[in-house]
Amino acid sequence: MTETSGDRLQKVLSDIRKAEEEFGRKPGQTTLVAVSKTFAEEDIRPVLDAGQRVFGENRVQEAMGKWPGLRQEYEGIELHLIGPLQSNKAKEAVQTFDVIHTVDREKIAKALKTEMDKQDRHLPCFIEVNIGDEPQKAGISPRDTDAFVAFCRDEIGLNIMGLMCIPPVEDAPGPYFALLRKIAERNGLTQLSMGMSSDYATAVSFGATHVRVGSAIFGHRDYPA
């Protein structure tokens, strides 16, 4: 019998609950963000039919193309922007998404705040931390994160709910998850967006409140050439 995306969803949810139990966390403390980037509406519907309502997209334009229709079909959808955001897309991002995970520089923070004020739509945000200080990756350096949190939260008034990271792919993720948690704790932040298909159970063990899982649910992803 062929495994469906709904079956894979249930396995991921089961893994999350087992990790919560094993590491003494309350059931349901971790939100699964099903990463539907590059997948079409027909691929997403079975996961919606299986009960999932929280989804992540990388690109504003792609999300604008497929989610308005799905929102009309299904109630309670919560859409998270988990990819890089350009300041010229801030207006559409605030219109389209419910949570932003990738605030990573002052220009973006200011553009989002301006649009949220205009639209009277004050979305919760995560600050993206370049937890391994990798030159090819977006995000604030760990050493600059405290000051950036203060800027976003205290100076311009964004609703900063937590921190997000993607550890270096070649390293064990645990130390990086532990570092993100430490930075969050000293800034009074309780939400941690960390962990993907390869390491979400580990992320739960280090306190993740949001795990971003795509291929473990939807299967192999074909990227446009």
TrEMBL record:
Keyword Flavoprotein: no
Modified residues (N6-(pyridoxal phosphate)lysine): 37
The keyword Magnesium is annotated on this UniProt entry: no
Source domain of life: Bacteria
Domain Alanine racemase N-terminal: 26-221
GO molecular function: pyridoxal phosphate binding
Family: Belongs to the pyridoxal phosphate-binding protein YggS/PROSC family.
HAMAP family registered for this protein in UniProt: PLP_homeostasis (MF_02087)
Protein name, per record: Pyridoxal phosphate homeostasis protein
